[in-house]
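Give me structure tokens for this 230-residue protein.
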Amino acid sequence: MSKTELIVALDVNSVAQAEALVDEIGPEVLWYKIGKQLFTREGVGALEMLKGKGKKIFLDLKFHDIPNTVAQAVKSALSIGADMVNFHASGGSEMIRKTVEVNGAEHPDALLIAVTVLTSMDQEALAELGVAGNPAEVVERFAKLAKSSGAHGVVCSALEIDLVKNACGQDFKLIVPGIRPVGSSVDDQKRIMTPAQASEKGADYIVVGRPITKAEDKQKAAAAVLAELA
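Here you go.
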């Protein structure tokens, strides 16, 4: 089984704040996630800062639009340095296929990842939207759709790792947010697991934010997560 990699989420307002976090966390962490909060304020500058430090970037913008728009948005994301980009599986098979076709050959090492069900959503939230099934059933349905449409993997909660690996195979990449080291706050996540548990189940990447970025000693907090993964 390949080693689970840690992605630290940079959910801050400025490149200066993000850079301070990266420097404080230290050289052991390779992957960082830039989401809507930072990218909307700072744009390409946030990616340039990370690339300048030799880091890999998960650009977490969860694109969801008509097929050509998403394909071109992902193309733009890859052109400015993203190594992993995501889009909503609920955009459908045509959207996913078009995105992979437009970008796969030019960026063969990039990871094109579909979002299944947000980790803040439970069955009640899905029912409110008229989505049939419990979170696990919806995640499996979306993961199979993503794989058959050419996506390299999905974002899913730790509780669905076994389900998705069984449905889509061991080579299908799983990016798992909602990871909380032992003793840390649950915050607004509903479907969570520790780093060691997620790794043991087969997560390819785990995303950790506040337990590292809000820690008093950020390097120590990151090292503790990496130790769990080892």
